């Protein structure tokens, strides 16, 4: 268990990506000293959290510092005065005797939230008439408002998928966390697989797959445009070696790879520094990014790099001797060119490696969750998957998956096709007060899953009665029902 | 083959899945010299299976064919011999994610039952993790041990035959996660706590009845577990239906075609008057069929009627609510 880095990272360290939690609200932040964080209307620094265990709950003190919350004994032993029902309770908005200003004064004095709640209870004329349950509810509500407690939790698929679905569902195509959970299982994602992943979910699905593979096996991530977005992936905090066998390959080259005309000569324009672009959009800031903005996110930093190069050269001209300048300039631009060439060579090499891996056509599975229509993706990428392997496609909408189903049936080489969605319901479980809270259905997207089999090159499926048994008849063969149709 | 590693070709001793079509399948133990009967004929292991690639089509003696598949925990769940009510992949998926299981995790489970969840857990924690599973029924415990061995995963699992409520899981202070699927989970919470590592361990209990959930949540709280969450997950499957609907556009009654002929209308770009979309011209577009029609003079003729073919998705009528469906997870600090 040690080797997998499980023991590592149970303490909060500088440089980690941590997730702040308050009730059901999450936010991912980098753990950096003297970096002001805003979360749930609170401003604070994370400095004091460094060194504590993940899962620790903190209070925000007046200076914006974190302090581990002391365990307080609930005063349950006193017999509380309570009413039996609300028939005589009139809600005139005047039952609380403390004013806004009074409460503000208490806060400014640095009085702890707990104490404020106590004050509110004492100054409420109706509190003792409430039923015990209503009192409980009242206290919980006030605590939520005035007790600024924050828990710092370690990122995981569970945490990050919940966070993204709540905060930025558009970034992940509304892939709800229970749907993601199904994908990981249906796809038999595990250590040692050779997986093909195609996603436009900010790298969340990739991270989830990597977590379940534990650094073993290999992943080839297919990407549209110039490069894969791995913003969410960096939140997981994987050890470096997890990335040793993570490859990427551009979708634009898939056709050529399948037809045998692949070459590394024309590379898609790749950003020099993908991480900069990502930091803006990974939920580490409060910036909201819409779905449409996502589609326009073409990396353009190559142009930026050229600009900064000329800027550098100009600066050097000003500060040095003309001759030395010239020499330096030549040397620098030579170095820049060499560096650029080296990087390009690196990229070509990686691309060829990825192409070779794909070309073996023996991947252990395919997992897709993107904003693109699933049909062309599946038809192309299934070619790289070995027979008797599962595949799973997510789509926010059902209809494209219906089309996908039809085209897959025509292609053949797949069985056990299943279209599904999951509904999720959470419960409040309290003595005598248990009931469902929220039901989520339909809004979590849909899955099409299946298993590959050896693809029959000859189209033998058409009129075979067994074929009809194996596959749904396509509408081409659908007989006219006769005049009653 | 093993349940934790893919193999390419079928070997003697493997467990494989015979797929007959449309959700019909069964597991088979591959053995030299044996035969397996199917409704499409006989499969001879020595000639038809051993040495063949997984995913191959195998023709049976009567001429029909099947596909032979590599086992996975999910396929096993759908096909294993039930000794008890089992957990299905829908619940297994959410449990796995909520318990944050991954390679290297140490998990405790009780009861083992038919081993459905066990196989999935073993798959997830392999190659460096371990499953400690406790089953109070002696024969079931023994059968589980046998199966794990047959499936090549015995090094990843320890089966203990005892009552978890009395004697716990047999380990202490090591587990990352504990899972309970027993009648009285509240009696095992204390033992779960001692099996779990000191901080950050997660526990999940699975119960069919709300009363059990209530008692368990209370026990979790008493033992210092925090962030208790209860949820229910339901799977809705859609079936596919190639169907058609009549199109209410009017057609030229003077165009007649032979009886029983159905052809795509000649002009794929034509738009018929009240119909909102031009038909697409392939099999999911409009087709014309014939409708017998007597005109005013009583003469029988045929009129073309457009039909709009489409693929419909039909939810299964009953949303399957499993026998056990409520799970509570919480974390220890």
* Strand ordering within the main sheet of chain A: 10-9-8-11-12-15-13-14
Largest sheet of chain A: 8 strands, mixed
CATH topology of the largest domain in chain A: Rossmann fold
The rough form of chain B would be described as flat
Any low-confidence stretches of chain B, pLDDT <50, length ≥5? 252-287
Number of strands of chain B: 15
Fraction of helical residues of chain A: 25-40%
CATH class of the largest domain in chain A: Alpha Beta
**Radius of gyration of chain A, whole Å:** 29 Å
Question: How far from one another are the termini of chain B?
Answer: 40 Å
The total beta strand count of chain A reads 15
**CATH homologous superfamily classification of the largest domain in chain A:** Vaccinia Virus protein VP39
Q: Which CATH architecture of the largest domain in chain A is right?
A: 3-Layer(aba) Sandwich
Can you tell me the residue ranges of chain A where pLDDT is under 50 for at least 5 consecutive residues? 1-9, 271-313, 459-485
Helix count of chain B equals 8
